Amino acid sequence: MGVTVKASLGTEKYYTEVIAGENKIITDEPIDKGGGNKGFNPFEILATSLASCTAATLRMYIDRKGWEIPQINVEVELENYPQTKTAQFCRVIDFGITEISEEIKDKLFKIADACPVHKILTNDIEVLTKIH
């Protein structure tokens, strides 16, 4: 599945409108980095992609199985280490007050790793750039 997003940044540091189809989000940088903190910063957007995809993938599987799990919470922490050119995502998943057996937890763990964004992030990634 391919997607296209367009980011437009004018003269207001670093307020950026990002459009995908009919949807729009705002990204920005924190005040201490010269921005206005009016939206998610790019690292938060990256972590958001993993968190939201994980939650949606789990919901699809849980619904298909007919399990009564009304709440899915996914927290993602992203640490970037530019010196070593590495990054680490720490993903924590819980299901609110719902009691879940270890067997089902094991299945859900595997399903979380099958999330399409997780697969992209753990595969080789290539960025191609053109300037017009």
Notes on the protein architecture:
The protein is 33% helix and 24% strand. By secondary structure, the protein is an alpha+beta fold. The protein has a 3-stranded antiparallel sheet, with no helix packed on it. A two-stranded antiparallel sheet has the order 4-5. The chain is elongated, with a radius of gyration of 18 Å. It starts with 5 loop residues before the first strand and ends in a 10-residue tail after the last helix.
Q: Which overall shape is indicated by the principal axes computed on the Cα atoms?
A: elongated
- The DSSP helix count reads 3
Strand order of the largest sheet: 1-2-3
SS-derived structural category: alpha+beta
- Tell me the series of helices and strands, N- to C-terminal: EEEHEEHH
Mean pLDDT: 96
- Rg result: 18 Å
Whole-Å distance between the termini?
25 Å
Strand tally: 5
Q: Which percent band covers the strand fraction?
A: 15-25%
Unreliable stretches covering 5 or more consecutive residues: none
Largest sheet: 3 strands, antiparallel
- Helical content band: 25-40%
Protein name: Redox protein
Pfam family, one: OsmC
Organism: Epilithonimonas pallida
InterPro entries: KH_dom-like_a/b, OsmC/Ohr_fam, OsmC/Ohrsf
What's the layout of helices and strands?
Layout: E1 6-9, E2 16-20, E3 23-27, H1 42-65, E4 73-81, E5 86-94, H2 102-113, H3 116-122
Antiparallel strand pairs: 1-2, 2-3, 4-5
Helix pairs in contact: 1-2
